[in-house]
UniProtKB/TrEMBL annotation:
It comes from the Eukaryota. Residues 12-31 have a biased composition (Basic and acidic residues). Residues 33-106 form the GLTSCR protein conserved domain. GO terms for biological process: positive regulation of DNA-templated transcription. Residues 1-41 are annotated as: Disordered. InterPro entries: Chromatin_remod/trans_coact (IPR052438), GSCR1_dom (IPR015671). It comes from Portunus trituberculatus (Swimming crab). Signal peptide: none annotated. GO terms for cellular component: SWI/SNF complex. This is Glioma tumor suppressor candidate region gene 1 protein.
């Protein structure tokens, strides 16, 4: 068996009889990619863009099948509902914050006026 690159190409596989000449190289690369995806080297930083591509390309092995139109519509509906809910929560929190700011500023204005007024003595 010959060495393979991280992108899945083979380096001159020999015909092994019954199968195609790339079959053993493909299986080897598949096992290498699966092993790299299941046991990633997450401690070593990427050296450059090429190193990043070589180390991340193996995650294509876990690519799922395409979604059906019904699944996409259902997912979009759930996403829209979640987005609307979060937007309402955000607006409620923003309104509460603004009302607290107004209330606090009125409180300080009241105390400022109260303490700056001269005391009238009888």
């Amino acid at each position: 068996m010959t060495s393979t690159s991280a992108t899945g190409g083979t380096g001159g596989d020999k015909d092994n009889g019954g199968g195609s000449k790339d079959e053993s190289g493909f299986e080897h690369q598949l096992k290498t990619d699966q092993n790299g995806a299941l046991n990633p080297d997450y401690r070593t930083p990427f050296k450059n863009k090429i190193d990043a591509c070589k180390r991340l390309i193996r995650y294509h092995v876990f690519n799922e099948c395409a979604f059906t139109p019904w699944e996409l519509a259902e997912s979009n509906a759930q996403y829209e509902l979640q987005a609307e809910t979060l937007l309402k929560k955000f607006n409620n929190m923003k309104y509460k914050y603004q009302s607290l700011l107004v209330k606090d500023s009125m409180h300080w204005k009241f105390h400022q006026v109260l303490f700056t007024m001269p005391v009238v003595r009888l």
